[in-house]
């Protein structure tokens, strides 16, 4: 995962993280909010409609209770007593009809269209006489008798085939005497409007009312029979509940309430779109806010790309180009804050690096020039001629082994001079070079001695080639005045301390005025003098830096001491190089 993130572009990583950590959670939150809002709408509407149905059910129970209570009047007004006495005369029949008419008047003849009182041999009627009523009575006679005095509410029946005006509900009850049961049956024909008014009294908007009997049969449906929900509502097994049903790709909210007195179930069926329509404004606001937030998030992503990712990518490309060896990169990116400072720092860094590279290149060039000049000076034709001339005269005059020593010294000197820069060159190598050089110069001048005190650790330290030899040559040639100064001694000491290599080259020659030389007033007729003092100082500065260098101590008639302070480099073993330290 870490490798994938390192190799993937920052813009892609940010885009993926932005989508998964911002966009997706926001859309999920919006979806959850929408679902919760819809659920709340259903619950709120269901609770409201349940309260409405409580009121409707109570009103239906009240209406039903009124008719059930009115049936008791058959006992109170003496009708049951008359029927129990046997066959009735005309006066008793007239009294029964009159009492039944009074009952109908009390109940209201607008809704109670007829009251039938049926015995085994006689039928009494108050109100309208329906031709098909005998069929109704035949259908419910046994059921009413089995109820043994308890009332029965029938299905909705259409007694007059004229729209809703013919839809009736029949209340039936058997009458029991003191000695005999089921001496008569009472049927009250009640207009369905009596019950439907319970629904009409409530404001329900798009809700469609319906009424089921205790067998789950549809007594009333406020919509049309062609509605998709009609058949589903007519199904049995309805309880007090709020449910959803899907019919013909349409969703409905079904709210029902069962009456405890009648067993009937009153209910409303509401299209879900009507339920959610009241929350449509909230949903629209939510959608608009979601779109606006998505646009804002997209704008933020674009701003991040413009002012963060883009500048970083541009700056990275410039840094890659600069790291690959390109020229100095000066860039400007439309960044803010830390990125703006990073832009300035990069420009300053690239400028300084370019400047340091140029300085380093110049120093290397100067260093090589100094070394080549020193090498050319040491191996000048004049020196080689003098050396070979000395060897020639030694061979002619002395005919001794000294010629061998001089030849070997010259070979060693030439081999050291030809040694490449890449090869490891130590202080021990430089001491051996000086020893070979001293052998040749002794044969030439015969007026000096050279002593070495080199610690083994110091002999193993790496130094620049020809760093000491020019100073030793300066002491022999100029300090001892080319053989004029007698009893000359050159001492070369070296030791390591605190991570530094300290080398001292001292002679007891004629010396010189250091301050005068530093002012440039000293004679510069000798090339070797310049190399030994001026060039060597510059080589040390170029090779080792400003913290290291060479110090010259000299006065006329008191000799010269040159002190080198160099870094302790490449000390890997003990080089026991010609030390006279004892």
**Rough shape?**
rod-shaped
Mean pLDDT level = 78
Low-confidence stretches: 524-528
Number of strands: 15
**Could you state the oligomeric state of the chains shown?**
single chain
Radius of gyration: 63 Å
> Structural class of the secondary structure composition?
alpha+beta
Alpha-carbon distance between the termini? 67 Å
Provide the spatial order of strands within the biggest beta sheet.
2-1-5-4-3
Largest sheet descriptor: 5 strands, antiparallel
Describe this protein with a few key phrases.
582 residues; five-stranded antiparallel beta sheet; 15 strands
Task: Outline the structure in words.
It is built from 18 helices and 15 strands. Helices cover 52% and strands 18% of the residues. The chain has helices at residues 2-7, 10-70, 73-76, 79-84, 90-107, 133-147, 193-200, 230-233, 272-277, 280-323, 337-378, 381-397, 402-418, 427-445, 456-459, 469-479, 514-518, 527-544; strands at 112-118, 123-127, 152-158, 167-175, 184-191, 208-212, 218-221, 241-247, 250-258, 265-271, 448-454, 488-497, 500-507, 549-554, 560-567. The strands form three sheets. A five-stranded antiparallel sheet has the order 2-1-5-4-3, sandwiched between helices. It has a five-stranded antiparallel sheet with strand order 7-6-10-9-8. Strands 11-12-13-15-14 form a five-stranded mixed sheet. The protein has 582 residues and is an alpha+beta fold. A hairpin with a 4-residue loop joins β1 and β2 (123-127). The protein is rod-shaped and about 195 Å long. α2 packs antiparallel against α7 (193-200), α11 (337-378) runs antiparallel to α18 and α16 runs antiparallel to α18 (527-544). The two termini are 67 Å apart.
């Amino acid at each position: 995962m870490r490798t994938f993130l390192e190799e993937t572009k920052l813009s892609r990583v940010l885009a993926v993280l932005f989508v998964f950590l911002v966009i997706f959670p926001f859309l999920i939150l919006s979806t959850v909010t929408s679902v919760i809002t819809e659920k709340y709408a259903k619950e709120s509407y269901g609770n409201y409609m349940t309260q409405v149905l409580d009121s409707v059910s109570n009103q239906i129970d009240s209406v039903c209770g009124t008719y059930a209570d009115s049936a008791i009047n058959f006992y109170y007004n003496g009708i049951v007593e008359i029927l129990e006495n046997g066959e009735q005369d005309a006066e008793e029949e007239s009294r029964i009809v009159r009492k039944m008419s009074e009952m109908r008047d009390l109940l209201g003849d607008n809704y109670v269209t007829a009251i039938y009182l049926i015995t085994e041999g006689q039928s009494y009627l108050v109100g309208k006489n329906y031709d098909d009523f005998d069929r109704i009575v035949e259908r419910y006679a046994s059921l009413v008798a089995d109820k043994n005095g308890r009332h029965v509410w029938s299905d909705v029946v259409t007694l007059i085939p004229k729209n809703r005006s013919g839809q009736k509900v029949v209340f039936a009850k058997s009458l029991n005497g003191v000695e005999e049961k089921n001496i008569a049956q009472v049927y009250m024909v009640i207009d369905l409007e009596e019950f439907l008014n319970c629904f009409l009294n409530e404001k329900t908007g798009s809700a469609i009312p319906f009424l089921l009997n205790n067998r789950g049969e549809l007594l009333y449906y406020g919509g049309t029979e062609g509605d998709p929900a009609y058949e589903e509502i007519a199904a049995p097994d309805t309880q007090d509940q709020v449910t959803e049903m899907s019919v013909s790709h349409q969703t409905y909210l079904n709210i029902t309430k069962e009456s405890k007195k009648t067993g009937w179930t009153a209910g409303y069926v509401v299209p879900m779109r009507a339920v959610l329509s009241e929350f449509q404004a909230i949903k629209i606001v939510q959608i608009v806010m979601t779109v606006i937030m998505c646009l804002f998030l997209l704008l933020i992503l674009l701003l991040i790309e413009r002012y963060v990712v883009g500048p970083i990518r541009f700056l990275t490309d410039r840094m890659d180009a600069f790291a690959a060896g390109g020229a100095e990169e000066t860039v400007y990116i439309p960044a803010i804050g830390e990125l703006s400072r990073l832009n300035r720092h990069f420009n300053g860094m690239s400028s300084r690096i370019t400047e340091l590279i140029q300085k380093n290149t110049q120093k290397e060039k100067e260093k090589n020039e100094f070394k080549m000049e020193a090498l050319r000076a040491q191996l000048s034709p004049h020196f080689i001629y003098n050396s070979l001339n000395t060897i020639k005269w030694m061979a002619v005059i002395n005919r001794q082994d000294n010629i061998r020593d001089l030849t070997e010294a010259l070979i060693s000197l030439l081999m050291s001079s030809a040694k490449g820069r890449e090869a490891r060159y130590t202080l021990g190598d430089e001491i051996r070079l000086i020893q070979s050089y001293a052998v040749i110069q002794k044969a030439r001048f015969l007026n000096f001695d050279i002593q070495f005190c080199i610690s083994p650790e110091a002999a193993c330290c790496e130094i620049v080639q020809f760093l000491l030899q020019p100073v030793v040559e300066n002491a022999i040639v100029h300090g001892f005045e080319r053989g004029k100064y007698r009893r000359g001694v050159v001492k070369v000491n070296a030791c390591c301390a605190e991570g530094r290599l300290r080398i001292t080259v001292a002679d007891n020659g004629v010396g010189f005025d250091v301050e005068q030389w530093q002012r440039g007033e000293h004679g510069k007729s000798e090339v070797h003098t310049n190399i030994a003092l001026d060039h060597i100082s510059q080589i040390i500065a170029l090779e080792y830096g400003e913290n290291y260098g060479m110090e010259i101590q000299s006065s006329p008639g008191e000799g010269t001491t040159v002190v080198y302070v160099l870094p302790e480099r490449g000390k890997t073993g003990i080089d026991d190089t010609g030390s006279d330290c004892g």
